[in-house]
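Regression test case RT-17, inverse folding.

Input:
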């Protein structure tokens, strides 16, 4: 008989790792917003590319041509968005939601519980990895 995680049991479901069971939308958002320092460079570039539009890239290149700074602008765009980086392209090609989940899952598996800061009283996520007060119940552990 299968047990549902989070409902009074501690046995894992077959084929599901502990970290994949724990990934919620709140945890994913926390990891992507608060744990950037543990991300790989290609993950940061892939996230940056999510906000870039074709119009924005075209406009940037047009301004550079007018100012004769094409090489510098190309360098900056490549460094920031990684269009020629195969690892970045691989992440972007997954699609936005799958890319976000993949990055968050890797962070959780690689860094473990050391980056997930939970309240010692209510066990909910804090606002940041260094927070010492719960935003949910107000518990303070300074």
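Golden output:
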């Amino acid at each position: 008989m299968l047990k549902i995680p989070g409902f009074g049991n501690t046995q894992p479901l077959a084929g599901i790792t502990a970290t994949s069971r724990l990934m919620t939308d709140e945890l994913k958002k926390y990891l992507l917003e608060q744990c950037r320092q543990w991300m790989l460079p290609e993950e940061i570039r892939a996230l940056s590319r999510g906000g870039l539009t074709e119009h924005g890239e075209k406009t940037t290149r047009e301004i550079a041509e007018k100012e004769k700074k094409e090489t510098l602008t190309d360098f900056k765009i490549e460094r920031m968005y990684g269009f020629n980086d195969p690892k970045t392209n691989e992440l972007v090609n997954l699609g936005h939601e799958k890319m976000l989940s993949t990055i968050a899952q890797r962070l959780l598996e690689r860094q473990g519980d050391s980056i997930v800061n939970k309240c010692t009283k209510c066990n909910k996520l804090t606002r940041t990895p260094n927070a010492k007060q719960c935003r949910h119940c107000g518990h303070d552990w300074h």
